[in-house]
Design goal:
The structure is a single chain. With 170 residues, the chain is mostly helical. The protein has a domain at 48-122. Helices cover 75% and strands 0% of the residues. It has ten helices and no strands. Helix 5 packs antiparallel against helix 6 (90-103). This is Pentatricopeptide repeat-containing protein At4g04790, mitochondrial-like.
Length: 170
């Protein structure tokens, strides 16, 4: 297409994507395999911050949804990395790890856990807690106990969350 190199058109598409939200709706409702058009439009957007906002919103929807939407999140992660050549944000990975916990999916939890390293994102307390939750949800008590020893427990809120996870998943 002739508009790929045109910054004005690329900027317009980015603005359209952010203001209208149709792409979010399309990605979430129809997925990327059923309807590749949203991803095609996102390729025109050269504003990485705008794309990060879009992806964070989609991953937030996936994290809050039924476990059946996990595959959509994994497909989107693949597209972000391989088709758009971008590094997923911490929020995207956090939301995906939460979706893995909701789905009780150990294999994909471990895959997302490795993605933090691949993306150059050091683990933080929140990512440790989300992974702990995913391990408990998937029934891997041994690995969850090992990971628990790595979570800083000096914050009372963290201790409360850990206690709640033990209660919920035990």
């Amino acid at each position: 297409m002739h508009c790929v190199g045109n910054p004005a058109i690329a900027s317009f598409i980015c603005t359209y994507v952010l203001l209208e939200g149709n792409i979010l709706f399309d990605i979430y409702c129809y997925g990327l395999k059923t309807n590749p058009t949203p991803l095609s439009l996102l390729k025109f957007c050269t504003d990485e911050l705008a794309l990060e906002v879009i992806f964070n919103q989609v991953f937030a929807l996936i994290a809050e949804s039924e476990s059946t939407h996990l595959q959509l999140g994994l497909d989107l992660l693949h597209a972000i990395k391989n088709e758009l050549g971008l590094t997923p944000s911490r929020k995207c990975l956090d939301f995906l790890l939460n979706a893995c916990a909701n789905a009780k999916d150990l294999r994909n939890s471990l895959l997302i856990w490795k993605e933090y390293e691949t993306a150059g994102l050091p683990y933080n307390t929140l990512s440790f807690i989300r992974m702990y939750q995913a391990l408990l949800a998937a029934g891997d008590r041994k690995a969850s106990k090992i990971l628990l020893s790595k979570i800083p427990k000096d914050d009372p809120h963290v201790r409360t969350i850990i206690k709640a996870c033990k209660t919920i998943y035990s």
